[in-house]
Every structure is written in structure tokens, then in C-alpha cells.
């Protein structure tokens, strides 16, 4: 079946921001008086758990660190502010193929969705950081944490997007960058292309219908395998 809808998943699908987030966490943790420092290797492991507050809660429990919900929310809020400020001050390129694929999808009449379950500040920062290469108006649907009760790997974010867009799972192709987010899309019965980011590359993407490091091929064209999915090929 030819797809009618293209769903970009997490922020990391659009733009490499994981290291920005990691550095922001380290600054927020330091300000909170916590002796936690997340290297790239540690953060790569933490990304197997979706949701920043959930990661903090998990680590507090694992290390016997008494953190109240208020403290967790405060650390996460401060991290978000630090990361968003950095993104707002620097134009960050989109990941290869994102602009070309989204433009092609729109010219073909496909609906475009951004199925993130992060907060609005992070979403706004991404569009600012793109320097106009991607705009909110390009999307027919943009999700956020206000639209879901349970984030990824639960399928709610995708089921909500499909409902709002009025399409069946078989009509849509999702693109994700982490194994936990990919699981959410698969639980919503979607075909999924995995495009791991710099930090998530070591994760197991066994559930993906296709894994590719870039949406572009060696010649700078949209990967033919991705196009095959969108055009209804096997």
C-alpha cells in the first residue's frame, strides 16, 4: 500500500541534539549539588530509557539518592532551559535527508507528522535552531508531552497522531532514532525506518523494518529503500 503519511519521531530524528542535552543535564545536576557526571558512554546507556524525568527517577532509586518529585522536576526543567538556550543561539543543521524527504513528501501530498512526546520548549527550540530549514507549518501534526499520559515506548504518542491525522497504521511510515522510541511505533503497528543518532548507534534496532545511518544514499539522493516503503513496495 502506498503511504499517505510520513511520521518523524523523536527530536533526534530531525537534528543531532543528544550531546547538547547531555551537557545540559550535567550542568543542571551540578547546580543541584549532585555528584553525577554523564559521559557520552553513560548517556548512551541512559537513552535506552525514554523520558528525562524517568531517567532521573530511575538513577535516584538505583543509587539510593533521595530525590523528591519536586527536585526531579526542577532538575529536568533547568536542563531544558540550558539546552534550549544553546539551541536558540546556534543554527544547527538538520540530519541528512530530513529536509529533502519532508519536501518530497509535501509535493506528493503526503501528510507530515512530528510524533514527539517532549515538552513544548524543546519543540520550539528545534525549529529555532533549524534556522528556517524546517518550520512548524510544514507539519500537519506536532505532538508534545501534553497529549500523552504514557510516553514512549508506549504507543500512545503514535496512536494519538494517527487519530488526529485520520489515517490507519498501514498508511503511515515512521522514522525513529532510538530503540525505545522505535518500539512505540511498532506497538502502534507501523512500519519503521531506524536512523540511529551519534549516541544511539550502539542500540539494538532488531524491530526496525529498515536501518540506515542516513536518509540519503552515497549520491546524496533519498535512500531508495525508504522511497520503496513510501511508494508501497515490499
Task: Explain this structure.
The protein folds into 2 domains: 5-16 and 92-230, Rossmann fold (3-Layer(aba) Sandwich), CATH 3.40.50.1000; 18-89, Orthogonal Bundle (DNA polymerase, domain 1), CATH 1.10.150. It is built from 10 helices and 6 strands; from the N terminus they run E-H-H-H-H-H-H-E-H-E-H-E-H-E-E-H. It has helices at 11-14, 18-31, 40-46, 52-63, 69-89, 98-107, 120-129, 156-165, 179-187, 224-230; strands at 5-8, 111-114, 141-142, 172-176, 191-194, 210-211. Strands 3-2-1-4-5-6 form a 6-stranded parallel β-sheet, with helices on both faces. Helix 9 links the parallel strand 4 and strand 5. Helix 4 packs across helix 5 (69-89) and helix 5 (69-89) packs parallel to helix 7.
Bulk shape:
globular
What CATH architecture label of the largest domain applies? Answer: 3-Layer(aba) Sandwich
**Overall domain count:** 2
First-residue to last-residue Cα separation: 9 Å
| Quaternary form | single chain
Main beta-sheet strand count, sense and barrel state:
6 strands, parallel
CATH top level class name of the largest domain: Alpha Beta
Q: Write down the CATH topology of the largest domain.
A: Rossmann fold
CATH superfamily of the largest domain: HAD superfamily/HAD-like
